Amino acid sequence: MTRPELVLLHAPSNYDFRGRPVVYGPISDVIPSTPIFEMYPIGFISIAGYLEKHGIPTRIVNIANRMLREPRFDVERFLSKLHPLAFGIDLHWLPHAQGSLELARIVKRLHPSIPVIFGGFSATYFHQELIQYPQVDFVVRGDSTEEPVLQLMQRIKHGAAVEDVPNLSWKDGSGVAHHNALSWVPSSLDDIPLDYNYPIKSVIKYRSLAGVLPFSNWLDYPITAVFTCRGCTLNCRSCGGSRFSFKEIYNRGEVAYRHPSLLADDIHSIQRYLGGPVFIIGDIRQPGEDYAEKLLGAMKKKRIKVPIVLELFAPAGEAFFREVSRAIPNFNIQMSPESHD
Ligand code: SF4
């Protein structure tokens, strides 16, 4: 079995959920996951695919899902057998605040000399607080961390300095925190493939299915997602992914889009290997009618038949739905805006 150099761990929202009953509230009602929030962020797949492509063997382990599915799964025993160059833990959604830090604490106790890297939207927002924790060595900030994580892994591998790794928060030998500039903000998603072959290869490579499943009943409902963009042109008030939030927190001035033909390729690859529904994240009209037209044309050409979920940020007219139904036989609509403005 290949020895991974980076192990990406996904924690449950509350690490102690197997021993202590907790009332969670509506924290996971709009996603296909239980309140344990065993679904890991899709960024795990793009980071793992990107690192593998650049020669860093990377393994995703959904600890939350294993704890949920296997009541006798011994997390500490499992972790003690892993010896990567670094562990990565997501703190993307805030409900994972306790779970991610507790998991990091256990990792650090078992492997004091292996660096622990945090990343995700919430980790970016709270990077100054997070880096103070003894179990956190690095925080990789921003909405696009594939390249910064690769650079960090290369430095860790060769024992090199990290002062110039973009988007990185780190601690020096005296424990003083440093925050490198959040300068890695790609203007397009064309070089960031979302490779859904990665989980399939990973199952064979690491001989574990439960560890890589995105959420507990995924095999019954194998929904996947593709991104048209990172960022948003709108400013719904309660949204952490709004134009304002992306500018203020992730230093993104402009929305980055994926070329429609590449997006159609992504969907085609999912249809070929997984065959489940595909959620297209981001209104396909956001970059302009031309983008929607090109994407629908490319999907028609590729004979996309899997169910497609389209996200709309504003009502669409009859002509749009006519075009959609001509291009794809099976679709449904999700409305995204959370406020009138
Ligand atoms: S349209 Fe969706 S992603 Fe954009 S700001 Fe509104 S809720 Fe957030």
Q: Remind me, CATH topology of the largest domain?
A: Rossmann fold
CATH-assigned homologous superfamily of the largest domain? Response regulator
Mean pLDDT: 92
Distance between the termini: 52 Å
Low-pLDDT residue spans: none
Measured by DSSP, the beta-strand proportion falls in 5-15%
Small molecules (ligands, ions, cofactors) in the structure: iron/sulfur cluster
Helix-and-strand structural type: alpha/beta
User: Major sheet: order of its strands?
Assistant: 2-1-3-4-5-6-7
* Named CATH architecture of the largest domain: 3-Layer(aba) Sandwich
User: Regarding CATH, which class of the largest domain?
Assistant: Alpha Beta
What would you call the shape?
Answer: globular
What is the share of helical residues? 25-40%
Radius of gyration using CA atoms only: 20 Å
